[in-house]
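Here's a chain:
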Amino acid sequence: MVFKKLWDESLLKKVAEECLAFTDWDEKKIFKSVSVNKRSCGIFGKLPPKTKMLLSYCNSSKFLEFLEEITGEKGLIPDPHLLGGGIHSSLNDGFLKMHADFNWHDRLKLYRRLNLLIYLNPDWDKSWGGELCLACKTDQGLHIEKTIEPLFNTTVLFTTTDQSFHGHPEPMSLPEGKFRNSLALYYYVSEKPVNSADIQRSYTDYRQLNGQRYL
């Protein structure tokens, strides 16, 4: 699902400004085969105030009820630890290869079910690249079914399965001072989804477009 202007524009503008000015990153990924120039912060106490406010709302009972209503999922559970979530920021030449996320939160002992991505990029130019690609796995490899520009106040919600491959796999060409910024939240369930693998996988499954795993 893709939502345009789901959030209050003035609030999200303040969140975007906070994230643009943010410097206290947890990590910067430089794994040459699968991810380059991506930084993130998922430690709630380090995040700026408006960003905390929005993330807290996304983990609230009211928002969980909204998610359950539009997806049909029941018993959704938020992650207060923001494992893999929080602020994501990619720099020039950054990319994130196609992957299926971990399906098991080992600390919470829960199954991952939904991904929520909120994009924070005003004045984004299509020529820079950075589109989110959603793909399915076929006998011939990964087939990209949909691409979504990371435009300001665009929110993407999708079900997490062992086949829900996604990423922005091509290096971006960003002008100086521009970044691909977003907020990421994940939601869980206590019972194993019927379309989930039996293996409780706490690692990310990166794939090439031909379907082969990265070594």
Remarks:
- The helical segments are 9-21, 49-58, 61-71.
